Amino acid sequence: MRILVLTLSFFLLASQSIADDVKGSKDHRVIKRYQDAKITRYTFKKFDEYTLVTNKIAKSVASGGNLDSSNSIKLEGKITLITYETPKQRSTLEVHSNYQDALKKAGFEILYSCSNKECGGRNFNHTMKVGHHLSFAENYKDQRYIAAKLKNAHGQIYVSMYVARNSSSGGRTKDLIYTQLNIIEMAAMEKNMVTIDASAMAKAISTKGSIALYGIHFDYDKSVLKPESKPTLEQIVKLLKDKPALKLVVVGHSDNRGKFQYNMTLSDKRAKAVVNTLIKNYGISASRLKGWGVGFLSPVASNQSEKGRGLNRRVELVQQ
Fold first, then answer.
1. 85 and 176 belong to one structural domain
2. The pLDDT of residue 252 is above 80
3. Count: domains in the chain
4. Least enclosed by CB within 10 Å: which of 135, 147, 278, 290?
5. What confidence score (pLDDT) does residue 134 get?
6. Residue 135's pLDDT is what?
7. Do 122 and 256 share a domain, yes or no?
């Protein structure tokens, strides 16, 4: 079998395949192509959401089925979607086995692997076509799939690899193998908002009793403050020093993804992390601060869009 390459195992690709690639496309730095394959579609987004299939699909999304916590994981981060076309003499088994072996060798955990009917047959095929970049390659009797995860010092990377033989179209593409390789690198959305200064904080608190802040950042699923939070923290400190009688509740807010108690706990830990940092690192009296998490109970926008969820994930200063 022709072995594909991952991570540090480099491999010189056939120049013909590179020349035939769709303009502007390239292999991902972590996962390379199967030999002799060419890229026919390519999409890169610096930050977006993605639903990773992790179980059999009983009813396709195209037919009104749902992707939920029983069969998928919702992810956010850097998204790379690549469609590869592989010569007819290859098989879906050959491509699938090579990817699975290479992923394991690179340290990935296989979250789900299936083939043909065990994936969900036609339902699986049609679900993968609707939301996962592949425009055709309809053959649910010859399809295979892998969902995998790698966690290291740099964060988490998820992979979706779906391969199917194209039996729905005639002409040149008839019976060609198509591989849909999607890579999701977990990352927080870059915040381009200007840091709110102490005077603006004071004005908002005096007029409406609170102010929402978006300059305080945490790693995904964690309650440790990131270094880029420092400018906003310094402005909170200035506010408290300018107004020595002011007491604040630092309130943590989340979007509605995940279970209720999970969001309540995480938002509370994050609020208390801000309070503890202000006390320990900046010398603010503990008697002037309280930390409290309310999860997704006080949204400022709809959680049905990423923009709305981004507005709901915030830290709020409320006057005691």
1. yes
2. yes
3. 2
4. 135
5. 67
6. 63
7. no
Domain identity same for 117 and 227:
no
Domain shared by 275 and 152, yes or no: no
**Domain harbouring 82, CATH code:** 3.40.1000
Pairing verdict, β 248-252 and 143-152: unpaired
* Within-domain flag for 8: no
The answer to whether 50 and 36 have CB atoms below 8 angstroms apart is no
* Domain coverage including residue 56: 15-186
Q: Residue 212: which of 97, 138, 298 has the closest Cα?
A: 298
Burial 268-292 (b: 16+ CB within 10 A, else e): bbbbbbbbebbeeeeebeeebbbbe
d(CA 308, CA 296): 12
* CA diameter of the chain: 78
Reading the block at residue 204, the tokens are: 């908002």
**pLDDT for res 15:** 40
Residue 7 lies in a domain: no
| Site of tokens 């290291």 | 152
Check: pTM over 0.70? Answer yes or no.
Answer: no
Do residues 313 and 253 make contact, with C-beta atoms less than 8 angstroms apart? yes
- Beta strand 38-53 with 155-165 is unpaired
Confidence of residue 153 (pLDDT cuts 50, 70, 90): low
What is the pLDDT, as a whole number, of residue 19?
A: 63
Cβ 109 vs Cβ 12: under 8 Å: no
Co-location of 49 and 121 in the same domain: yes
Distance CA 261, CA 161 (A): 33
207 and 165, same domain (yes or no): no
Q: Whose CA is closest to 24, among 76, 73, 78, 82?
A: 82
Q: For the residues 144-151, what does the mean pLDDT come to?
A: 93
* Torsion sign, CA atoms 113, 5, 3, 138: positive
8 Å CB contact between 98 and 142: no
Q: Tens digit of pLDDT for each residue in 121-137?
A: 888 988 887 656 666 66
> What span, in angstroms and rounded, lies between the C-alpha atoms of 306 and 50?
11
